[in-house]
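FORM 12-B: Structure-to-Sequence Request
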């Protein structure tokens, strides 16, 4: 049961984390996966690709193709203006939720 709760909590913040990673610089899928892994948010490609596609279709991300010496061209993602606005709104909401949880749990 605890694992299910942890999984649901992580899913709820995954888009925010992805936007945050991409906001630093253009990112290839493996770069995004590595950043999430470094933060102990283990995500598999099968979860990430549909999220990236949905975020792109919603106008939050754009991408460009870059040739690779190691194989096929790579897709590098960046935030659109709408993506930056969404990231800012999510950051504000995260701060509000964090404050509320700290108040309720007494962990301030």
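FORM 12-B RESPONSE
SEQUENCE OUT:
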């Amino acid at each position: 049961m605890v694992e299910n709760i942890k999984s649901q909590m992580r899913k709820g913040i995954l888009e925010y984390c992805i936007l945050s990673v991409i906001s630093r610089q253009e990112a290839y899928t493996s770069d995004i996966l590595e950043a999430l892994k470094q933060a102990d948010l283990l995500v598999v490609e099968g979860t990430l690709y549909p999220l990236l596609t949905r975020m792109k279709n919603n106008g939050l991300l754009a991408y460009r193709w870059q040739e690779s010496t190691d194989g096929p061209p790579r897709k590098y993602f960046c935030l659109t203006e709408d993506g930056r606005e969404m990231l800012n709104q999510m950051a504000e909401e995260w701060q509000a939720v964090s404050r509320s949880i700290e108040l309720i749990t007494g962990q301030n």
